[in-house]
Amino acid sequence: MGGGKGGSDFDPKGRSDNEIRRFCYSFMRELSRHIGPNTDVPAGDIGVGGREVAYMFGAYKQIRNEWSGILTGKGYDFGGSKIRPEATGFGLVYYVQHMLKAAGGEDFNGKTVAISGAGNVAQYAALKVIELGGTVVSLSDSKGALVATGAEGISPETIAKIGELKLKFGYLADLATPAGFKYVPGARPWTHFKQLDIALPCATQNEVSKDEAEALVAAGVKYVAEGSNMGCTKEAIDVFEGARAAGFVGGKAPVWYAPGKASNCGGVAVSGLEMAQNSARLQWAEEEVDGKLADIMKNCYNTCYNTAKQFAKEGELPSLVQGANIAGFLKVVDAAKVQGDWW
Question: Is residue 179 part of a domain?
């Protein structure tokens, strides 16, 4: 599937649809030389959603005079997959479900969940948490955070309004603050709770610092899983891993942390499913794609957990960081060895 990352210094905020379209076509004139269904297959990320993918897909067809599954996250009517926009957020919650079950035989029902971000990952993670009985007590963007002031969580209706706002590159500050919440300018949500069960960073890299990690541990957080890439700083991870290894300290339960390389792989997973559908010239129903996503996240969790158990000390929760790192490394090394390119 390729492992490339890239981007540009074009800021789409405040631009017209036509300006964005012209940029996407210009960008693809060069990008089309370097991608292909059997080379690298790009997908959307920060600032790149369904509109931008559609423009770039149209540009590729025009430049190369062929239909090819060279981008994922396409519209369903021209080769996209069901639940691709939802996949990273849904997959994150499916992964955490297995953490909850393994650590204490629990589920999301009755849990308070702080989520950062307000894009696709955060929105769909929040909707899935609500569906499973949890209470979402925060969302955020680069200008500030919505934080619950009481026991009531954010509603699906408010999340829908945020989705409409974000399509226009708006900010949470432009939204009428929902009842039971406060808007905190320039803040991230992590230090605003006295009691919390689960934290899901879903915004961008390095969004949880050491001090914020300590605040989450003090608030009683038991589970942290990244919906963003590298959401926690190394210092924050050390705090969570220390709280995991220490077990029950000062009446607080151990903290279990899942790194984004595992817990947020649902988006890439459904990109793979989209590529499979494109290759077969098929489109699967939503239930089939969702079922395959749930199985992939279960297998990913089991790989991390079972690998981590081999290195865990007796009586402590296995380190999912260690499990993900070791399992990923061994997969690459073993493949390289048998292909003869490891030396």
Answer: yes
Is residue 321 domain-resident?
A: no
pLDDT at residue number 2: 57
Return the active site residues.
5
Instruction: Examine the domain organization and report whether 48 and 132 are in the same domain.
Output: no
**Residues 76 and 21 placed together within one structural domain of the fold:** yes
Q: Which residues of the chain have pLDDT under 70?
A: 1-3, 248-252, 342-343
> Do residue 75 and residue 113 come from a single domain?
no
Spell out the long-range contacts of 305-313 with Cβ–Cβ below 8 A and sequence spacing 24 or more.
Answer: 305/98, 305/102, 313/245
Contact between 209 and 182 under an 8 Å Cβ cutoff? The reply is: no
Domain count, the chain: 2
Q: Can you give the pLDDT at residue 197?
A: 97
Express each pLDDT in 172-224 by its tens digit: 999 999 999 999 999 999 999 999 999 999 999 999 999 999 999 999 999 99
For residues 280, 281, 286 and 288, what is the CA-based torsion angle, rounded to 10 degrees?
A: -20
Domain of 151: which CATH number? 3.40.50.720
Pairing of strands 112-115, 135-141: parallel
Measured CA to CA, the distance from residue 113 to residue 126 in angstroms comes to 9
- The answer to whether position 288 is within a domain reads no
From residue 19, give the alpha-carbon distance in Å to each of 11, 14, 70, 118, 178.
11, 10, 23, 24, 34
Distance between CA 201 and CA 189 in Å, rounded?
Answer: 10
pLDDT at 31: 94
pLDDT at 59: 97
- Please tell me whether residues 92 and 215 are part of one structural domain: yes
Are the C-beta atoms of residues 202 and 115 closer than 8 Å to each other? Answer: yes
* Domain around 71: 17-80
Q: Are residues 40 and 153 in the same domain?
A: no
pLDDT the model gives residue 78: 95
The confidence score (pLDDT) of residue 14 equals: 86
